Structure to design on (114 residues):
């Protein structure tokens, strides 16, 4: 680790940063998990809502959500008898939005831009 940056957290070395970034991108590299994150970027949702949004079977959705939760990508809170899921932080929402923008450009054959 290097010296701390402005927020007081230690700055990871490049190898650690690249490893963690690759792990996050690998989690997004699944269509069902990406669909879940797209829906969660709109706001909190329970398993029933997420199952309807991504079109996968409920057991598969639950397994994907468990994996995302263990990785810290989504958070949970209990609301009565149901579990409500949310994105872990705004960086993930923006990452999902950018991935979809790249897809829009490729599908629509739009020119690249900054």
């Amino acid at each position: 680790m290097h010296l701390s940056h402005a927020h007081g957290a230690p700055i990871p070395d490049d190898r650690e940063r690249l490893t963690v970034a690759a792990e996050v991108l690998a989690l997004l590299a699944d269509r069902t998990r990406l669909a879940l994150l797209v829906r969660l970027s709109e706001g909190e949702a329970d398993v029933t809502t997420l199952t309807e949004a991504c079109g996968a079977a409920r057991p598969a959705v639950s397994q994907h959500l468990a994996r995302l939760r263990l990785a810290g990508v989504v958070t949970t809170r209990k609301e009565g008898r149901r579990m409500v899921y949310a994105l872990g932080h705004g960086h993930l929402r923006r990452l999902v939005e950018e991935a979809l923008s790249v897809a829009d450009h490729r599908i629509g054959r739009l020119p690249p831009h900054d």
The first helix runs from residue 14 to 28. The chain is about 55% helix and 10% strand. The mean pLDDT is 89.
